[in-house]
Design goal:
The structure is a single chain. The relative contact order is 0.06. The protein is built from 4 helices and 44 strands. The strands form 13 sheets. Strands 37, 39, 42, 43 and 44 form a 5-stranded mixed sheet that branches. The chain is mainly beta. The chain starts with a helix and ends in a 21-residue tail after the last helix.
Length: about 675
Amino acid sequence: APLQSRTKAGVMSVREGKGGKTARTPLRETSLTPLESRKRLRRHGRPRIHRIKRGWVWNQFFVLEEYMGSEPQYVGKLHTDMDLGDNAVKYTLSGEGAGPIFTIDQITGDIHALVGLDREEKSFYTLRAQAVDMHTGVPLEPESEFIIKVQDINDNEPRFPDGPYSASVPEMSPTGTYVTQVTATDADDPTYGNSARIVYSILHGQPYFSVDPKTGVIRTALANMDREVKGEYQVLLQAKDMGGQLGGLASTTTINITLSDVNDNPPRFAKSIFHLRVPESALVGSAVGRIRAHDLDAGSNAEVDYAIVPGDEGNMFDIISDGQTQEGVVVLKKPLDYETKKSYTFKVEASNIQLDPRFLHLGPFKDSATVKVNVLDMDEPPVFTKPSYSMDVYEDTPPGTIIGSVTAHDLDASSSAVRYSLEWHTESDSCFDVDTIEGTISTNEYLDRETAVQHNITVVATKVNNPLMSTKVSVTVSVLDVNEFPPELAVPSDTFVCENSRVGQVIQTVSAVDMDLPPVGQRFFFKSPKELRNRNFTVRDFGNNTAGIVTRRSGFQRRLQDAYVLPVVVEDSGYPAQSSTATLTIRVCSCEAGGSLLTCSAEAVFLPVGLSTGALMAILLCVALLIVMAALYMGQRRNKEKETLMTSKEDIRDNVIHYDDEGGGEADTRAFDMG
């Protein structure tokens, strides 16, 4: 009964909301300290010792947010068992918001909120309460802490913090393809009621897209949406709290959805034939024109590769794909000539570079068209028959001599006449002149090879009907040396023939030298005089600027005739041709069977080394005999009248002895003394 009485007397009133609902909670019992017991006994005038249980009366307090009433909002009541209602207990309040926000009636312990509170700014306040003696101010209870919670109401609508949104999804996607996910936030208390329970719905954007009401995931609701038909969609999405029930707060956001491209369209030419024109003077590598195949796709799916179909007349051109404009640039591959061919026709194929295997069933991803290129006739300068000309002229050629000619033609359809002129660069160019009509080049003065070996002149050909059209050609004039000196034999003027020589044997090889230039490339010709026929020897031209002395008979005998004379004519290939005649003395000698020389009727220089003393005495005796015979011959000649040595050419021929022994050639070093 005493406990029930204390519980009934010590209660706390808490008003929740505007209805003023009262909740009753039991007291907490705590033991009093000796000091507290004494104070309580004195206050009630009871001298006896009695144990008193402490009893603050409260629980957690609540206050509604956004209170709009004219009076302060009642929060709750603080009460202690020591308050007997005689106004002897004073209640105090401290902590967060004590004073400006919360106030307490010091006598009754009633707590009021003076201002409207916002839970989203601060959801609870921590305060401290104490009961003290009204007269002495001595605390009757220890200071205790309690919390006032701000109770949530649905005063915040859902918000999309990142809206508006942008998303993309590939075109031609199947139904249910994920697009994006949006999330709305609600500042209300998610743990209290349905104030923060959000439901999503689409207000605009159906039947193309759908949204999950709980997660906010947006998916495609219609299959095979084509970007080329419609590429952008705008979806209006709503987020509503209170679980979407009537009275809930809502907000909307916009989602811009773009269909990304896939390669589902092939390139297509707008027309089947393209006409291009190019001047015949266009340079190789220059652009002739552009063609384009349109692809409805975008980005890399619209990249087009162009190629000329082999065959036809496309070998004159090439085509390059322009990655910026997706055009095909037709480029000249070879030079054009209007007079040769006036037009070219070929086919060009356009195809996608990147293919999507999912759409290959839609057909071939390529197209073709015909290109016709017309060549335009241009007024071109004359064209020389050669890229350059070379001419030769001998020095000391008389002025006015024509040394050559150049020829140029107008290849255009007008076929204009051409006039020639010289372009002077140096003073030496004045040595030449050109016929303006015929193009013949002649000398103006004598040329000296020692002054200038070569002249470079420039001839200009100009069209008569258009003097602005001209072309130039280089002419090289080489001054040739005049053949002033005759060639001469380069071997000794005498040789020998063995008595045992055979017919047709080469006994000596001869060559020639010439003082004229150039020494390289000269050609010498060897022969015997036509007016003299030698029965013993002849000259055979080997063709390599050498010749051989060949025997025409055999049976040479030194005792019958010890020496023969052979005239040799040598002629060069210069202009004018020069020639000379040299006399070759051929002595008859005694030789061994192999062709080695033993003895001759001439000087002893031809004798081999190591002869015996008797042989030398015999040779000296022969020489002395020859001297005596020569002296007798000269004495007889002085007594005779002057007359010809021979009465006829037949007498000369009778003195020629046939010699037919074959010599040893260049390797036969034993036939004569190398010293």
